[in-house]
Amino acid sequence: MKIAFSLLIAGALTLFYPSAIISTPAQTSTQRNVNFNLVKDKRGNIIAINNLTIDNRRYNAKFIYGTFGEIFKNPTTTAFWENQQTAERALNAINTALNARKGAAIKIGVIPRNELSNAGSGNNFMIPVAQQRIVRQYGKERTENVYVNGVLGGFNEKQKIWSNYSFDAFSVTPDTPFMFVKLEPR
């Protein structure tokens, strides 16, 4: 009798509350994304996001101001190198995390006071994806430059949200200081 009663209760729960028995993909991804932590410095600038989920893997994302060459010694070990689609999903995850905390600081990373704020002013960031060598001919003058391409995110002052500012041609030279995101698997 007790077994029949238990089966009846389990059947009723499944019929009226299926989510109590089976976890749906939407619930699982939502639960994973709420576990991230925004890390701030003494001035309230966001310097990292720990425990960020990207493609069902956990990462720590650090906002570091400097040149590509200083931050990423070996570009091929950079997370999502030559994988723009995954880098764009990482960008979306970072923006979602930054937007989830209302009242959070709109400045990311720390930019030294002696730096010009033209490149990477603390309200935009780049996830590097690839390097590209470009050769141009200006009359008799030939130039050859290396650029770092990536996906770009930034703070939209009007809407007060973090969003994607990516476009195909965004790049900086490897020695241009900028706010980069360094993603490290956990």
List keywords for this structure.
186 residues, alpha+beta, 4-stranded antiparallel sheet, 37% strand, globular
Largest sheet: number of strands, sense, barrel closure = 4 strands, antiparallel
The H-and-E topology, N to C, reads as HHHEEEHHEEEEE
Radius of gyration: 22 Å
Alpha carbon gap, first and last residue:
50 Å
Fraction of residues in helices? 25-40%
Q: Could you give the order of strands across the largest sheet?
A: 1-2-3-8
Number of helices: 5
- Shape type: globular
Number of domains: 1
> Which ranges are low-confidence, i.e. pLDDT below 50, for 5 or more consecutive residues?
1-33
Description:
- Keywords: Signal.
- With 186 residues, the protein is an alpha+beta fold.
- It has one domain.
- Helix content is 26%, strand content 37%.
- It contains 5 helices and 8 strands.
- The strands form 2 sheets. Strands 1-2-3-8 form a 4-stranded antiparallel sheet. Strands 4, 5, 6 and 7 form a 4-stranded antiparallel sheet that branches.
- A hairpin with a 2-residue loop joins strand 4 and strand 5.
- The longest helix is centred in the middle third of the chain and has 17 residues.
- The chain is globular and about 55 Å long.
- The protein starts with a helix and ends with a strand.
- The N terminus is likely disordered.
Short précis:
Residues 1-22 form the signal peptide. By secondary structure, the protein is α+β, with helices and mostly antiparallel strands.
Write the layout of secondary structure elements.
Blueprint: H1 2-16, H2 18-21, H3 25-33, E1 37-40, E2 46-54, E3 57-66, H4 68-71, H5 84-100, E4 124-138, E5 141-156, E6 161-164, E7 171-172, E8 178-185
Antiparallel strand pairs: 1-2, 2-3, 3-8, 4-5, 5-6, 5-7
Keywords: Signal
Signal peptide: 1-22
